[in-house]
Amino acid sequence: MYFGGIEAGGTKFVCAVSDQQQNIIRKVSIPTTTPEETLTKVYAFFDPYELAAMGIGSFGPIGIDPAKDNYGYILATPKPGWADFDFLGSIKKHYSIPVAWTTDVNAAAYGELKKGAAQGKKSCIYLTVGTGIGGGVVVDQQIFSGIGHPEMGHMHVKRHPDDDFAGSCPYHKDCLEGLAAGPSLEARTGIKGQDLPEDHQIWDLQAYYIGQALMSYVLTLAPEKIVLGGGVMNQEHMLMKIRQSFVDQMAGYMETPAASEYIVRWGLPNESGIIGSLLLAEEASK
Ligand code: ADP
Ligand code: ZN
């Protein structure tokens, strides 16, 4: 008996099969092209296995409310061919097994809570800082959703007085994602994030926005742990700067664990989402 997990991203799909002890026995990365072409490769990967259940953590926004017609669909994405695509329905048509369905960051938050940096906690948030900024929330060991899934990357932040960058979010311009996701680094400096020197002043600005957003998440949800992941968080020095910015902006108002314990990098680097998806598959099989 096997479980299948899909971490469906806008650039690539990571698919994995695990055994009942959650050991990954095979994993593949498939480039995200058209839905038809991508899913044909997904099926070719999983078909040889007798799966008990699958778990999908998908890029979004996605329809997450089982009571709505758009449940299981990818919603308003600029990714060609994927908007209004019935992703979950297609998978379920091919495999008649239980399929857990959530966002990529929710799956990552779940993976981190069960097996990663937030292990032993009841609640956490997971924030990815990459091409976009997105957050997932686990409360009482369950993924949180309401009228939809949280969209924590698009919260509005207080602009830094020295910052005159218009912001790059197509919807809001200067929301958190517009001001501080990976592409903003290049838009501000002309240099890709991975090539920027550690002593560049842009990092202080970025830490100001992310620290501020973390403060708002903590004031709203009071999670037990904050886990940070995504390409930009490969900058190890950023973690210290973000912690300091969080502490400075919180200004002692709310008592939190020491920032060094509270705000941490992912415990399952690059695998939080796929491990979370496999864990959700196991849950769905019960
Ligand atoms: P995605 O969000 O598409 O899944 P990533 O999490 O890898 O992918 O994020 C990609 C973004 O992160 C790009 O904007 C890239 O320039 C930036 N990035 C990747 N590595 C680094 C790094 N080491 N330092 C700073 N920025 C980085
Ligand atoms: Zn936005």
Can you give a write-up of this model?
This protein is 34% helix and 21% strand. The mean pLDDT is 97. The strands form three sheets. Strands 3-2-1-4-7 form a five-stranded mixed sheet. Strands 10-9-8-11-12 form a five-stranded mixed sheet, sandwiched between helices. A two-stranded antiparallel sheet has the order 5-6. Helix 3 crosses helix 9 (272-285) and helix 6 (202-221) packs across helix 7 (236-250). The chain is globular. It has 286 residues and is α/β, with parallel strands linked by helices. The chain is built from nine helices and twelve strands. The structure holds adenosine-5'-diphosphate and zinc ion (ZN). Adenosine-5'-diphosphate binds at residues 9, 11, 130-131, 182-183, 192-194, 230-232, 234-235.
Topology:
Blueprint: E1 2-8, E2 12-18, E3 24-31, H1 35-46, E4 51-58, E5 73-74, E6 85-86, H2 87-94, E7 99-103, H3 104-115, E8 124-129, E9 133-139, E10 142-143, H4 176-180, H5 182-189, H6 202-221, E11 226-229, H7 236-250, H8 259-262, E12 263-265, H9 272-285
Helix pairs in contact: 3-9, 6-7
Ligands (ions, cofactors included)? adenosine-5'-diphosphate, zinc ion
CATH superfamily of the largest domain: ATPase, nucleotide binding domain
Q: Termini distance?
A: 13 Å
CATH class of the largest domain: Alpha Beta
Provide the β-strand percentage band: 15-25%
- Helix amount, in percent? 25-40%
Strand order of the biggest β-sheet: 3-2-1-4-7
User: Quick one: biggest sheet?
Assistant: 5 strands, mixed
- CATH fold assignment of the largest domain: Nucleotidyltransferase, domain 5
Order of helices and strands: EEEHEEEHEHEEEHHHEHHEH
Overall pLDDT? 97
Radius of gyration: 19 Å
CATH architecture of the largest domain: 2-Layer Sandwich
| Global outline | globular
What's the number of extended β-strand segments? 12
Q: Any idea how many domains?
A: 2
List segments where confidence is low: pLDDT < 50 over at least 5 consecutive residues: none
Task: Report the structural category.
Answer: alpha/beta
What is the helix tally?
9
Keywords: Magnesium, Metal-binding, Zinc
Organism: Candidatus Enterococcus ferrettii
Cofactor: Mg(2+)
Family: Belongs to the ROK (NagC/XylR) family.
